[in-house]
Amino acid sequence: MRDAFFSELNSLFRHDRRVVFLTGDLGYKLFDQLKEFDPARVINCGIREAAMIGYAAGLAKSGLLPFVYSITPFVTLRCLEQIKIDLCYNTANVVVVGVGGGFAYGPNGPTHHGIDDVGALSCLPRLTLWTPCDPHEVRLCVRAAATLDRPAYLRLGRNKEPNIFASLKQTPDIAKPAVVREGRDGVIVTSGFILHTVLKAADALALQGIYPAVVRITTFRPFPAEYARLLTAQFGTVMTVEEHIANGGLGMEIARVVAESGDGRHFRMLTIPAEFPDACYDRDTLLARSGLDADAIATAYHGLFRTQETAKTDRDD
Amino acid sequence: MTNPLKDTASISLLLRELRRDIIRMAAHSGHVGVALSCVDIVAALYTGVLNCTPATVNDPARDRFILSKGHGCMALYAVLAHRGFIDRRLLDTYGQNGSVLAEHPLAGKVSGVECATGSLGHGLAIGAGMAQGLKLQGIDARVFVLLGDGECNEGSVWEAAALARAGNLDNLVAIVDGNGLQACGKYDEISPGSMLADSWKSFGWDVAEADGHNYQELVALLGQTAGAGVPRVFLCNTVKGKGIDFMERDLEWHYRPVNSDDRDKAFRRLSGA
Fold this sequence. Notes:
The complex is a heterodimer of chains A (317) and B (273).
Chain A: H1 2-15, E1 19-23, H2 32-37, E2 42-44, H3 49-61, E3 65-71, H4 80-89, E4 95-99, H5 117-121, E5 128-130, H6 135-145, E6 152-155, E7 178-181, E8 187-191, H7 195-207, E9 213-216, E10 219-221, H8 225-234, E11 237-245, H9 250-261, E12 266-272, H10 283-289, H11 294-316
Parallel strand pairs in A: 1-2, 1-3, 3-4, 4-6, 5-6, 8-9, 8-11, 11-12
Antiparallel strand pairs in A: 5-10, 7-9
Chain B: H1 8-25, H2 32-48, E1 64-67, H3 73-82, H4 123-136, E2 143-148, H5 155-166, E3 172-178, E4 181-182, E5 185-186, H6 187-190, H7 196-202, E6 206-211, H8 215-222, E7 232-237, H9 252-255, H10 260-270
Parallel strand pairs in B: 1-2, 2-3, 3-7, 6-7
Antiparallel strand pairs in B: 4-5
Helix pairs in contact in B: 1-2, 1-3, 1-10, 2-3, 2-8, 4-5
């Protein structure tokens, strides 16, 4: 995802002279191409995230289109008030790019984990929030940034995320939720690059004769509430999966839709527990310990679906 | 274009009128001492320094002003009304339900307010970004940012100071309203041993001092930018509550609304009674 971001940014940077790249002293060698093309529009702000956001707001207010880049927690929670006031309240068209969302920086520890970024940012008005699920979607987000008149947050993984969609042309519109896999036995709704793991879980479920649909939501803010309402009305079983804690995340949004519908769907959300890990772990291990590996997702869904089937049978009896 | 007042009688009249407006606005809100401390600086900027008028308020080539110490906004509103950016009658609505004149400047609601401020430590970085943006686009305009000395407690001010120096932003001017009093005590007691002049110098800025209540000196100095590539800061000596003797240097007036008795007394002081 990171390479896709820089590759796409490089194209935009060359034909849109409003684009300015700001980094909080991270991304060694990754923005060299930008610097070679126009060094004046590449600014290493140093390890000063708060001022970097304000600086970007000022650049935007003077007519430019800044992209601000750092590791997820540093460019989100570290400078949250600057994002809220300088970007959102003052409506500055700045794209905040967090690399390493979720557990992508696993062994680096909780200082580098980005498992609460969406929750912290999702309470801010006017902020578009993108959680792309593969490198193609990252490119579409960068393209969409060019026409934004307000701030946006782009949540990247690191650099190992596989392509889910076969080509850019076959990648669905990022602005809308999309059915990534058709199904008849309920639905799993997900967001971001954990989609890859969710699809593996769906494969495992298929072997057991359970075929849930899989839907991904890439534009998390503004939240597609009406789509979610129709979706949850359509399926008896709904489960959400996200590489994020529960607070402010996808599961809570869908839970609200389910609760407000008042028709008792069978619902479950899978999230990362809001805890600090007790030791050093890589991403896969952290996900497994959070019940978010493909097997755990499949097992959770299996249990939820069977409960719903049993309830249905009881009703029918 | 700017049209600085020349004769002392009209300068004195203007500064008294602005203070009357501030006293009137402060009937139901605090921060009157803050506005009185910075009003002469804001007046000097808008009448004698800034290349920005109601006619050019959206011109990309205008000079920008950011009141980073947003709680001093009564001074800004009074000056904007005097200069015709906003209708004078708006001042009577200050702080009331439905008014665009809130107790900290709202975003995008008031002609002449470049950005919302109020949470301290934001304005300098935004101003520096604007100055950088103007340079990148080849626009010859300046950005002025007014900070409080208390505001300089914020680490983000110093992040912004370093960024501005790294960006060689000689079109950026910071002005510190150095009234020596912050919300709950004296600056010197809260930051013992901290010398603001030394701090700014150590960040590579050109440091100058000015009397923050001397209109003519402010007009003469504030428009002077430093040498090529260096941002300049003016440390202005000011008095919190300046001009109303019973409010001067008294923290009470950081908080206390001006009731009708206080108002009448203040007006008498302004008339020289």
